[in-house]
Each structure stands twice: as C-alpha cells, then as structure tokens.
Amino acid sequence: MEKLSLAKELANNTYPGRGIVIGRSEDGSKAVTAYFIMGRSSNSRNRVFVEEGEGIRTEAFDPSKLEDPSLIIYAPVRVLGKDTIVTNGDQTDTIYDGMSKGLTFEQSLRIRQYEPDGPNYTPRISGIMHVENGEYDYSMSILKSNNGNPDGNNRYTFSYDHPVAGEGRFIHTYARNENPLPSFEGEPKWVELSGDIDTFTKMVWENLNEENKVSLFVRYIDIATGTYETRIMNKNQ
C-alpha cells in the first residue's frame, strides 16, 4: 500500500462526503483524529459543530431552514473513559451504549447497518481511539451496502496497534462525486500526518472543497497524560 498525501486526497475529491482520520502525530506524542462533514443539499449544508461535554454534536445553523434532521443531527464524538468515539452518525450512541455494557467496538455495531438513504445507501463509518497508561491503539469500521445492493450489509473492522508516528488512516463515505454516490472502497487509506494541531487543522480545512465543506473537528490527545486539545471549524458563522 502506498502512503498518500492527505492534502492531495482531499483536494482531488470534490465530495468525499463525511470523513474520519485517525493516527499519531509526527512527534509521536499525540493521538490524532479529524472528522469532517460536507453537503450538497441546503439541508446538509445548514449545520455547525458545537461542543457537548467532552465531545461534539451537529446543530442546525438556521433552525427555520431545517428540513429533515434524521440523518444530519447527531453526536459525532463522545468520550467513554479512556476511549474517544468518532462516527458519521447516531451510531456514536450505539457504540457508547454497547461498550458501557461490556461489548466491544465491533460487537456494538452488529445491530447497525448503512444509512437508509437510497439510492446512495451511505456507509456508516466509525472509529475508536484508546489512550491509557502511555499506550495507544485505534480501530475503524465501515458498514456498507453490498456494492449498492441494499439486500446485503457488509461489515469491515480494521484495528491498528502501536500506531507509527507521522501516519494515520483515512476513511470517507463516498469514493467520488457521482449520482448515485458510490461508497468508499477498500481498507482505510494510509496517509501522512504532520504538524501541530493548528497546522493540521488548517491543512485539512483548506483542502476540502470550498463549495461543499461544512464543518471540521480535530483533536490531539496527549498519549502520556490523556489531556487533549480540540479545534472546530464551521463554514457557517
């Protein structure tokens, strides 16, 4: 597998949809994650990220223009003990609730499938980061239709122990900007990670398509202490 430039992957795709990046900072000291949302419809674009507890939630920028909240209003990020959960939908709550009852990340997602938004059948993408006692590992998941056929629900989980400094994995909902939107294919992309939180946030935000980008969340977690820094970017101000 070729290590890719995250900047180029973002800049060369006008509509990757929603995306999750997880990895380790260039200096090796931080667990890194980013989550972004994009939109082609006015309903999807009418959103902002706001902080909620140790995580975030989506909120309508203009409540009077909110059409259908079912797939666009949710908590993308929640924290459960030493675990940070990042997803593109309300399966954040499913993972949180399942793990609270002793299930694993993968087991918690067994009751979920792709989003009911045919003909796209948007994949549900999820990630979990575990930082404890100076150790760090993470996993990512994608639940998708069977090559556009809603009769099948394909489940893939990828786990990464001892992440290497300066690299991460990138997964997004759509392979490219077409109609209907084709689902992401293959395992999460191997990408380079560099810079501090502000440099990284700026790079991701500036390389997302200007017309379609909506919001971005970035968090750097200190692997030694568990403390973290967060950045949020919203196109709607």
Which secondary structure elements does this structure contain, and how are they paired or packed?
Blueprint: H1 6-11, E1 19-24, E2 30-38, H2 42-45, E3 47-52, E4 55-60, E5 77-80, E6 83-87, H3 91-100, H4 105-108, E7 124-132, E8 135-146, E9 149-161, E10 167-172, E11 189-192, H5 197-207, E12 213-222, E13 228-234
Antiparallel strand pairs: 1-2, 1-10, 2-12, 3-4, 5-6, 6-7, 7-8, 8-9, 10-11, 12-13
Condensed summary:
The chain is mainly β. Helices cover 15% and strands 41% of the residues. The radius of gyration is 16 Å and the shape is globular.
For the record, the CATH class is Alpha Beta
Q: What's the total count of β strands?
A: 13
Number of helical stretches of at least 4 residues: 5
CATH topology: Glutamine Phosphoribosylpyrophosphate, subunit 1, domain 1
Q: Indicate the proportion of strand residues.
A: 35-45%
Unreliable sequence segments: none
Strand order of the largest sheet: 11-10-1-2-12-13
CATH architecture type = 4-Layer Sandwich
Q: What is the residue-averaged pLDDT?
A: 97
Q: Gyration radius, to the nearest Å? A: 16 Å
Distance, first to last CA: 39 Å
What is the string of helix and strand elements? HEEHEEEEHHEEEEEHEE
The computed structural class is mainly beta
User: CATH-wise, what's the superfamily?
Assistant: Inosine monophosphate cyclohydrolase-like
Roughly how much helix do the residues carry, as a percent range?
Answer: 10-25%
Major sheet attributes:
6 strands, antiparallel
